[in-house]
Design goal:
The chain is mostly helical. The protein has helices at 3-29, 36-69, 75-90, 93-103, 109-132, 139-163. The chain starts with a helix and ends with a helix. The chain crosses the membrane at residues 46-67, 88-107, 113-132, 144-163.
């Protein structure tokens, strides 16, 4: 994959992870009795949050392309854009699977939400590491940069959660 494609995929995946994480944290904060119905409602909330962000990203990419190129997208451009923006939705796969298990009464709803939060945080940490490992700096600086970036990510999520 070309560097620009990697950048586009990673950017959208991180947007999706933040949106998913914020949604999960809000759902965790307002968790009720842990019924199967609540699990399905939570799964729908996560799906709608990610799908709406995905649709907004598609529209933004299309408009940016039209403005910068003065023409519509080629088939190749559509494929690239769809692949990159779909990363937003893919950020919610693990949390959604956990919520489906809770909807089937195989897992407690609150536990599914908390495990989903943990999975998204771990994925963010993994993507931070994968981005930082390619930088030509000493290992200790990579570790420090990873910690700082994870701290900033945590701050972003906390600010979004407080705002809601």
């Amino acid at each position: 994959m070309a560097p620009d494609e990697v950048r586009a995929h990673l950017k959208e995946r991180i947007y999706g992870a933040f949106a998913c994480l914020t949604t999960l944290l809000l759902l965790t904060r307002h968790a009720g009795h842990g019924t199967a119905e609540e699990a399905w409602t939570a799964a729908l909330d996560v799906a709608l949050a990610l799908l709406s962000l995905w649709a907004a990203s598609l529209v933004a990419e299309l408009l940016a392309h039209l403005a910068s190129h003065g023409r519509g997208l080629s088939r190749r451009d559509w494929a690239h854009m769809a692949g990159a923006t779909w990363q937003i939705v893919s950020a919610g796969v693990v949390p959604m699977l956990l919520l489906v298990l809770a909807g089937l009464s195989l897992l407690d709803v609150e536990l599914a939400l908390r495990l989903g939060v943990g999975a998204v945080i771990l994925s963010l940490g993994l993507f931070v590491y994968l981005a930082v490992r390619r930088t030509p700096i000493p290992t200790w600086q990579r570790v420090l940069l990873t910690a700082v970036l994870m701290g900033v990510a945590t701050l972003v999520v906390l600010l979004k959660a407080i705002a809601h």
